Amino acid sequence: MSSLRLGRFLLLLLLNHELSLSASRSFSVDYQNDCFRKDGEKFRYISGSIHYSRMPRAYWKDRLLKMYMAGLNAIQTYIPWNFHEESPGRYSFSGDRDVEHFLQLAQDIGLLVILRPGPYICAEWDMGGLPAWLLQKKDIVLRSSDPDYIAAVDSWMGKLLPMMKPYLYQNGGPIISVQVENEYGSYFACDYNYMRHLSKLMRSYLGEETVLFTTDGASLGFLKCGTIQGVYATVDFGAGSNVSAAFNVQRHAEPNGPLVNSEYYTGWLDLWGSPHSVVSSTKVAKTLNEILAIGANVNMYMFIGGTNFGYWNGAVAPYSPQPTSYDYDAPLTEAGDLTEKYFAIREVIKMYRKIPEGIIPPSSPKYSYGAVKMKLLQTVSEALETLSFSGPVESMFPQTFTDLKQAFGYVLYRTELPVDCSTPTPLSSPLNGVRDRAYVSVNGVAAGILERNKVLTINVTGKAGSQVDVLVENMGRINYGKNINDFKGLVYNLTLGNVALKGWTMYSLSIDEAINQGIFWEMITKSSDQLPPTALSLPAFYGGSFIIPDGIPDLPQDTYISLPKWRKGQVWINGFNLGRYWPSRGPQVTLFVPATVLSTDAPNNVTILELEAAPCLSSSCIVDFTTTPILNETVKYHHKQRWAKFRADLFGH
Fold first, then answer.
1. Sign of CA dihedral 344, 348, 349, 354
2. Are 238 and 191 in contact (CB under 8 A)?
């Protein structure tokens, strides 16, 4: 046989082998026996949620391996649309956004995948994963059959789903099921045509044999609008729930088939100003045992929470933003560390399936790099020309972030006092139009803070013609409920007394780009004077650096940054946006710093944007790197009744 014919023969054998393997792989719903079937055999998954978008790529393998060693045979993950398409038609699937690499890692470790591609995901993520640029059509009805929304969804899914198809289980990959939308029964629109369109769209890309499912809270009211014919209905509920009653709700939608809790809550989300949420290990283990004892499938939400780095946190209505940490009191901490809850869950799982043999990867070592002295660089107003890459925009009335084509961060609005204010005069947001927090100064002197739903008026003084600067912070878009079309900036005008302010100049601030380009570090020797101690100071940038010796083994290591006596702002290390800090409101005090952003080859630059008042009185102007997280500091500011009501309403996530 010639070498050419031999090559063709071997290729044909290989293709036939791959086809036979593919043909033998199947995952389906068995309605007669109330179970899933995997490769023809009865199958039950015990899964945990992990969001690749909330942790650096370098840590994915460690977290997945710990999940596998806990006894899980599957993971569940969301795909946040806005994480991959931050502007229309510009996609990012590399680095920390490489979802295909994440899926392949899961498969290599031995974990199946339950995929939740949205387009809406909730997830305590900015705008529930929907991109802010959708709001360029101001009257758009999100999560509905609105033609503009559908066109954007079709375009996104046309990009994403073909990428996912090779990773379906029947095609040799790890994905056993795919969710259609997310908890649609909790949304006001109740648009069955929208849900039909999504299910047909997914079928067209993923094939008829793919198991599609919906997830809704375990009450009949949620199932009414959340379920759709031809898509398997599942429910979600937390520790301490009546398991039989919850699954009886699922049985109203699915009289036969496997019982599934798609979100079994191992903890709960946090809000700035409310105590850190904690659910006991005993309670979680007890209800998990009840779920598994009746043969049900379960996904634990979350198994590891991770971090809302940058500006990715969401918010709830009435407006309360979520903090940077998404620790969630999960079995693996924000930093991927093993907890008592991890081992309690593992012991329960041992009763129902064989646990993998081998050593569980340990919690990662932490290092205390100590105190770093910070130095004033520039105020935001001083750095305005440097920060506003796109230049000023002028209009009679203020424009929103969306109008200015800016999704996240900060915009500075500038105007003048139209009249003399020799006595304190109210500067107001009468229509609650500050979204979400505005730092006001008059002629370079801090005047006060306006805050959505909370502080709608401050008093100002100044002469006619005095410059008024209003730095507006987007604190994160609402991710759940009817108010997810959450516009940012000054969405309504401000008034001085009873006079509407006019003649605005607006500056979109490209702070992340400026820090990455090292612009502030060119200025560090130019500004040495500290701001005077005041109750409220101008928003300003501070910088400091520290060296990690390259001669010490195993460095750098993870750490936490503490900001003693700093009030509120944003932190970057070596250009990486760690997220927001707000220890004055709590409960989170420290921010997780992954070792991946640190360097032993060069000084590590710390940049802070302090929005309210820095503690820079001589030697107290420091940040401190420590080994211990503080996520549950006692908070003076909280709203117990509203938070309790929110939890009661939302214990269907």
1. positive
2. no
Tell me which residue of 408, 429, 410, 398 sits closest to 486, measured CA to CA.
408
Of the candidates 469, 467, 449, 471, the one whose C-alpha atom is nearest the C-alpha of residue 459 is 449
End-to-end CA distance of the chain: 64
Maximum C-alpha span of the chain: 101
Q: Could you report the per-residue pLDDT of 266-308, keeping only the tens digit for each?
A: 999 999 999 999 999 999 999 999 999 999 999 999 999 999 9
**CA–CA dist 9, 4 (Å, integer):** 9
Given this model, what pLDDT does residue 300 score? 98
Dist CA 347 CA 353 (whole Å):
10
d(CA 489, CA 437): 9
Instruction: Cite the active site residues.
Output: 183, 263
153, 88 in Cβ contact below 8 A?
A: no
For residues 603 and 546, the answer to whether their CB atoms sit within 8 Å is yes
> Which pLDDT tens digit goes with each residue over 437-464?
999 999 999 999 999 999 999 999 999 9
Q: Mutual orientation of helices 99-109 and 60-69 as an angle, nearest 10°?
A: 30
Q: Which of 542-561 are b and which e, b meaning 16 or more Cβ less than 10 Å from the residue's Cβ?
A: bbbbbebeeeeeeebbbbbb
Tokens of 168: 């379906």
**530 DSSP assignment:** P
Looking at residue 648, its pLDDT comes to 41
CA dist., res. 296 & res. 43, Å (int): 10
Handedness of CA 563, 565, 570, 574 (dihedral sign): negative
Rounded to whole angstroms, how far apart are CA atoms 62 and 68?
A: 10
Q: Which residues pair with 496 in a beta bridge?
A: 427, 499
Rounded to the nearest angstrom, the gap between the alpha carbon of residue 37 and the centroid of all alpha carbons in its chain is 33
Contact yes or no for 420/460 (Cβ under 8 A): no
